[in-house]
Amino acid sequence: MNVDTYKDLLDEVGLGNNAVMITMLDNKNCENKPYQNKTLFTEESLNAYNRISDLDELLYQKAKYAIETGIIQFLKVSESEAYLIEPYFPEPRLIVLGGGHIAKPLAEFGSKAGFSVTVIDDRPSFANSERFPTAKKVICESFENCFDLISLNKSAYVVIVTRGHRHDMDCLRQVLKHNTAYVGMIGSKRRVKSVMEQMLSEGYPQEKLNKVNAPIGLEIGAVTPEEIAFSIISQVISYRRLGDITNVNTKHTKTNWPEFDHEVLMELCKEENDPKAIITIISTKGSVPRNAGAKMIVWPYGKILGSIGGGCSEGTIINDARNLLGNGGYQIKSIDMTGAIAEDEGMVCGGIMDVIIESF
To answer: What is the largest CA-CA distance in the chain?
Structure first.
């Protein structure tokens, strides 16, 4: 069932795994199409994909490119048959251990850069939502016990900026037990050297310690808490987009981050037989209100969930979706937000979006 595929998708990204979904679209046999037309792959399972035909090989290459770059792929194999290949990445989470003077601007910059921010400190006067209004979570707990309250995985970017040397080491010991996207620790070169020597003496492998960004941040001559926060979030962004650039054995490809409409995907997991249409932005050009990957659902009786940008252009697509539900299959539409259209609707954007409408 397609709903099970979406459940599996949310499970995989919840574990911090990248995934790609391949949807087979067919206009010729849309009335008798198979109920299950979506297949989910993680990076690991994609590598084991059994390619027995030229189409399988082509789909594999497209899916591999999508999961490496974050760019949605569309493959048309005939006038009626096509494939939509969508990458899904976990929500990037910035875990800030320490709520001091650097953490405050860091949480703000992290939120603005698209991270779900969690701040942890053991002092109630520092760990509160009034001090960190942009953070998704603020946890007041000891650095020893806080790791039971968070899930560290491949979508976590961990910044250690506690108030003391001992707390930094306690946090680092815990973080190194997990496979995270990034870990950085504040401190002078002398202090960092001391910490690393201590960690080595405790049996932590040099390979693991080499992945710790310490002293933390890009070298930009930062002095103030805000400047230091800028240097840290810049380094975190570089790991998000390019991966570990210090690893010469890793292929560094700039990664796009497709939009992830969690509420829409949750709706698609529901065991319902009501017909509905899914609208997905598959490509954009210029300035547009939503990026590729954004979704909305349209029901035949007028209910909608999600948005691809609003305005009259969205209204037209919604009507197209409702008409499609009567016939089945799929359609590709282009929304032009340039020139007079954008001006008439009071939009500051001026780009073009291609969307796909599929019956579900």
So the answer is: 70
For residue 24, what are the β-bridge partners?
83
231 touches 104 (CB < 8 A) = no
Report the phi/psi class of residue 86: left, alpha or beta, with left for phi > 0 and alpha for psi in -120 to 50: beta
Bridge partners, residue 184, by sequence: 159, 213
CB proximity list for 225: less than 8 A, separation 6 or greater: 101, 102, 104, 105
User: Residues 213-226: what's their mean pLDDT?
Assistant: 95
Q: Measured between alpha carbons, how far is 175 from 157 in angstroms, rounded to an integer?
A: 10
Q: How confident is the model at residue 335 (pLDDT cuts 50, 70, 90)?
A: confident
CA distance 232 to 137: 20
Which stretches does DSSP call E strand in the chain?
19-26, 38-42, 73-76, 81-88, 93-97, 116-121, 137-140, 156-160, 182-185, 277-285, 295-298, 304-306, 330-336, 352-359
C-alpha 25: how far from its chain's center? 25
How many Å from the N-terminal Cα to the C-terminal Cα in the chain?
11
Q: Give the C-alpha separation, 230 to 237, whole Å.
A: 10
Give the C-alpha distances (Å, rounded to integers) separating 67 from 28, 85, 250, 333.
29, 9, 15, 24
Is-contact 119 146, C-beta < 8 A?
Answer: no
In percent, the amount of the chain with pLDDT more than 90 equals 68
Place of tokens 């003391």: 164
